[in-house]
Amino acid sequence: MTGWVMVALAGVAGLAAGAMNTVVGSGTLITFPVLLALGVPPVTANVSNTIGLVPGSLSGAWSFRRELAGQRERLR
Length: 76
Description:
Elements: H1 3-23, H2 28-37, H3 42-63, H4 65-68, H5 72-75
Helix pairs in contact: 1-2, 2-3
């Protein structure tokens, strides 16, 4: 596989995972196997997925801040 094909495959997987995370939150089911298929070591693929999910989780919490108002006690 050439470098451009690998980049394109990772990009398509990233877009699909982002769309999937928006709906149900299971984008790692797409990205982790693709990263492994591209030859990324398992620990590196896991860390990459985790780091990739953090901005989405933070932006999701920010966008739902009105719905989360008043839930501080439940969080504790």
